[in-house]
Amino acid sequence: MTDETLKPSPLQALHEELNAQMGGYAGYALPEHYPSGMEVEHLHTRKQAGLFDISFLGQIRIRAKEDDPAVAAEALEALMPLDIKGLGPNRVLYGLLTTDHGGIRDDLAISRQGDDFLLVLNGENREDNADYLENALSGDCKLVREFDRAMLSLQGPSSAEVLSRILDHATITNMHYRDSLEMPWEGGVLIVSRFGYTGMEGFDISIAAEQAEAFARRLLSEAEVEPAGLETRNSLRMEAGLCLYGVDIDRATSPVEAALVGSIATCRRAGGERAGGYPGAETIEGQMEHGVYRQRVGLRPEADVLLAGGVELFSDEARTEQVGRITSGCFSPTLRAMIAMGYVTPSHAAEGTTLFAVDADGQPHTVTVTALPFVPKTGH
């Protein structure tokens, strides 16, 4: 896809003014990094606050045709292994859309705002997944695409203090992790969620496209806030051991293999009060009981070498037994070392196991299986 075919973000003019290095992501032209570079952005976000443009995500609103949120919750629970009936007003969950074969169709955030449920989908397949949801829910619910809304993410330990100067101080200060509130700003309505994709304190902010630039400039006027690109978002999520859809998880990967069993509500598991009833439930429950043939692990290369997705993993340097494959890797500014994630057979998944990764030139590199996350999660 050429640059001319990429969709502009609502913050396009601001990114250009800030001399961002732009790249293509989910069909949008978005900042990869700014002049300071990924490492500086990453460390600044860890220390204070980074502002990310995540407008490529797909926002949709779902409401029961009879305006009864219990009906909408019932319909949504038939599509994902979450306790949506128990999702209180102004709360948000991380969850999965599963396939009939137990794979992951998408991972998403879902919150309840009054009688509506708001879903934030991954950008790459947002149209397909919105179509899927619309067809599956058409008997009971109405679905409205809000793909024209922008989304910003303010992440880092100073994010709450910064937001409390701009929005209602008491409301921001009293928000708990996974709270999601509608808040007024300059004649518009923001949806502010104490949530994010970095493993740190932070907020995701849904905002009308026409207000996005003004709000972003207001945030950047605070001394603690610097702009950050998607390379930094990737390195932060990697340090936190979080999956990227289409890279670490996909329709051929189950929640059990991906170490995402925690996203399956207890009440939806075998023996729970509303066990099963979602696509692929029988397969997933069987894997939870009997195990899987591969599982996601963290990996630390011994040498200072980037091992990216697709690199094969072997149990021995002679490469007689392939036991897995790397899905993603990057340099960790926090650890000052290379890190990676991938899938290996359970017999080679124990922390401390030595494996051998073979790079594109055929050179073997020693890697060690490491617990996730690489960097402890922090936050409110």
From TrEMBL:
Keywords for this protein: Aminotransferase, Transferase
Molecular functions (GO terms): aminomethyltransferase activity
Catalytic activity: N(6)-[(R)-S(8)-aminomethyldihydrolipoyl]-L-lysyl-[protein] + (6S)-5,6,7,8-tetrahydrofolate = N(6)-[(R)-dihydrolipoyl]-L-lysyl-[protein] + (6R)-5,10-methylene-5,6,7,8-tetrahydrofolate + NH4(+)
Statement: the UniProt record of this protein carries the keyword Transferase: yes
EC nos: 2.1.2.10
All residue ranges annotated as the Aminomethyltransferase C-terminal domain in the record: 294-375
Main enzyme class: transferase
SUPFAM superfamilies: Aminomethyltransferase beta-barrel domain (SSF101790), Folate-binding domain (SSF103025)
Record domain GCVT N-terminal: where: 13-261
Family per similarity comment: Belongs to the GcvT family.
Protein's recorded name: aminomethyltransferase
Originating species: Bombella dulcis
Gene name, Swiss-Prot/TrEMBL: gcvT
